[in-house]
C-alpha cells in the first residue's frame, strides 16, 4: 500500500499519530490488534499499531470491555498466523522509492543486515500483538498492567520497523522487501501458542535476548563501515529492546508465581526452552545488555550447548 503521508515523510523521528478524525476506526484496543494481525502490509501493520496504541494512551480507545467469556472464544478471533505479504520478496511498498543503486560487496553486507533487522522488527509487531491478544484472557483478568507493558513494547516495535525501513531508503536507496526474508520467528510463536510462559520464554527471553547479542555485533560492523546514522538508530532501538526482555522476565516470573510452580524462575525457563526449542544457544552473549535487562548469567549459561565440532560460537537463534 502507499505510505500514508505521515509515514512517507522522511523526518528523522517517527511521525506522531494521525488525528482522531483520520485515524482508523477501532472498537477497542483488542480490535486494533486484530486489524494489525489481519493486515498483510508491514507498513500498514506499523501504521495501525501507532494509531491504536496512541489512541489508547490518549484515552480515545479503551481496553476490551467485552472480552469473550472463554479462552476458546478469544482464540477463535485471532488468526492462526498473522497475515503477511503474499510474496516475501515483494511486500506492498511505497512506489516513490527507487530500486537500489549498484553497490560494493561491503555495502551490500550492511544493507542485508539492515534489511534483516527491519524484517525482524516487522515480525516483532505481529508477535507482540499475538502475545497480547492470545494471552489477554490468561493475564489481563489478574493484572491489567500487562496491557500497558506490551502496548508500549509493540509501539516501539512499530517505530523500530519504520526507523530501519526509512534508513534503508534514505541511506541506501533500497526498499524493504527487495531482499530474501524468512519467517523463522513465527516458528517460536507456533511452538508456544498454548502457554503464555512458553511464549515469554521463546520470544522475549530467548529471541529478544539474542537480539541484544547480535545488536552489539552489528553495531561494530556499522561503525567499521562508517555508517554512524544507522549505528545511532541501532543503539536507540537496542536500549528499548532491553526493556522488552525485562518485561518478559517480569511477566514470566509473575505467571510462574501465580501458578505456584516449584523451582526458580530460571529453572522453569530452562524447562520451557528444553521442551520447546530446537536451536542451539551459544556465545557470544552481550552480558552487559542482558544484565541491564535483568537477565543474569544463571538464566542462559546452563542452556549453552557446544557445537558438534566442539566450538563455542554461533548460536542460531533467528533474531
Ligand atoms: Fe524491536
Ligand atoms: Fe522487541
From TrEMBL:
<dbReference type="InterPro" id="IPR011197">
    <property type="entry name" value="UCP012318"/>
</dbReference>
<dbReference type="Pfam" id="PF04305">
    <property type="entry name" value="DUF455"/>
</dbReference>
<dbReference type="InterPro" id="IPR007402">
    <property type="entry name" value="DUF455"/>
</dbReference>
<dbReference type="InterPro" id="IPR009078">
    <property type="entry name" value="Ferritin-like_SF"/>
</dbReference>
<protein>
    <submittedName>
        <fullName>Oxidoreductase transition metal ion binding protein</fullName>
    </submittedName>
</protein>
Amino acid at each position: 500500500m502507499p505510505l500514508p503521508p505521515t509515514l512517507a515523510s522522511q523526518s528523522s523521528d517517527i511521525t506522531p499519530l494521525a488525528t482522531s478524525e483520520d485515524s482508523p476506526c477501532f472498537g477497542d484496543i483488542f480490535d486494533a490488534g486484530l486489524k494489525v494481525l489481519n493486515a498483510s502490509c508491514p507498513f500498514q501493520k506499523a501504521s495501525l499499531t501507532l494509531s491504536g496504541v496512541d489512541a489508547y494512551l490518549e484515552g480515545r480507545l479503551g481496553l476490551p470491555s467485552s472480552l469473550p467469556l472463554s479462552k476458546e472464544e478469544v482464540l477463535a478471533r485471532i488468526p492462526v498466523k498473522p497475515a503477511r505479504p503474499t510474496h516475501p520478496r515483494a511486500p506492498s511498498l511505497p512506489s516513490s522509492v527507487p530500486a537500489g543503486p549498484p553497490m560494493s560487496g561491503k555495502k551490500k553486507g550492511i544493507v542485508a543486515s539492515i534489511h534483516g533487522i527491519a524484517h525482524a522488527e516487522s515480525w516483532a509487531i505481529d508477535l507482540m500483538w499475538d502475545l497480547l491478544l492470545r494471552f489477554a484472557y490468561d493475564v489481563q483478568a489478574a493484572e491489567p498492567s500487562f496491557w500497558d507493558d506490551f502496548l508500549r513494547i509493540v509501539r516501539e516495535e512499530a517505530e523500530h520497523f519504520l526507523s530501519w525501513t526509512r534508513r534503508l531508503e534514505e541511506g541506501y536507496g533500497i526498499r524493504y522487501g527487495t531482499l530474501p526474508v524468512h519467517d523463522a520467528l513465527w516458528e517460536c510463536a507456533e511452538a508456544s501458542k498454548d502457554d503464555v510462559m512458553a511464549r515469554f520464554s521463546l520470544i522475549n527471553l530467548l529471541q529478544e535476548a539474542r537480539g541484544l547479542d547480535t545488536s552489539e555485533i552489528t553495531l561494530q560492523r556499522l561503525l567499521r563501515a562508517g555508517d554512524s546514522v544507522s549505528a545511532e538508530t541501532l543503539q536507540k532501538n537496542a536500549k528499548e529492546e532491553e526493556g522488552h526482555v525485562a518485561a518478559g522476565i517480569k511477566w514470566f516470573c509473575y505467571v510462574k508465581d501465580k501458578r505456584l510452580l516449584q523451582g526458580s524462575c530460571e529453572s522453569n525457563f530452562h524447562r520451557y526452552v528444553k521442551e520447546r526449542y530446537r536451536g542451539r544457544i551459544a556465545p557470544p552473549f552481550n552480558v552487559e545488555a542482558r544484565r541491564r535487562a535483568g537477565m543474569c548469567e544463571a538464566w542462559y549459561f546452563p542452556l549453552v550447548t557446544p557445537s558438534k565440532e566442539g566450538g563455542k560460537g554461533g548460536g542460531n537463534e533467528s533474531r
